[in-house]
Amino acid sequence: MRWQGEGLLIDVRRYGESSALIDVFTEPFGRRVGLVKGAFNKKNKSVIQPGNQLFLTWSSRTEESLGTFKVELIKSRYHTICEESIGIEIFNLICMLCTTYLPERIEFDDLYHRTIKLIEGKYGIVEKLRKYIEWELQLLKSLGFGLDLAKCVVSGSKEDLKFVSPRSGCAVSKKSSVGWEKQLLVLPDFLYRRGSVDILSNDDLENGFKLTEFFIKKSLQPVRSFQIDHFFRSRNRVLSLNPF
After folding, report:
1. pTM to 2 decimals?
2. Could you say which of 27, 33, 67, 227 would form a disulfide bridge with 60 (CB–CB 3.0 to 4.6 Å)?
């Protein structure tokens, strides 16, 4: 068995004396893990840096086995990602979630393109935080746990949406939420009126982080447990980088 394609390198783990297991996120083949022999020699050492875009040749006797990769560098992003602390922090969060929750060999083309756009985008801190919250929502959607933020689950109205039901993951309007506000999650305006909100407050970003945190814990943690407390500590550190 053999295939070729390009992908984003999201994890590298040493395997034996000179080999490595690499985890890549590709558009046509989804997330794939494979062995790179001689991974730390002079030729490959600078290539297998997380964040790099690689041309991959995967081969194995059977489709189900681990297989081996031959890698060539298409685009180096490692040093660009590391230029700002928020860039490396967000990239690490993306890698943790992808390697933990994306099943192998399943295509996630929308999430793949959003991932590339986020790590390559030249955004300010506030916009990068906003894009990351939207990325987490896309991750939930790609895994079958998408939120319905387009209309009120009670009235069907598309106006004045202010909250999200923690039970259904659906939006709730201000009028329909009267008396239930404390039991609901706040829906930031930038998620309700996408593209029409120019100025984001720190409260907006905090509410966005709280919203996706709740549904990551509710929907994804039962699927596969990992160091969730460490992940959310890192995530909260990212939010603290917002200077406003």
Report:
1. 0.93
2. 67
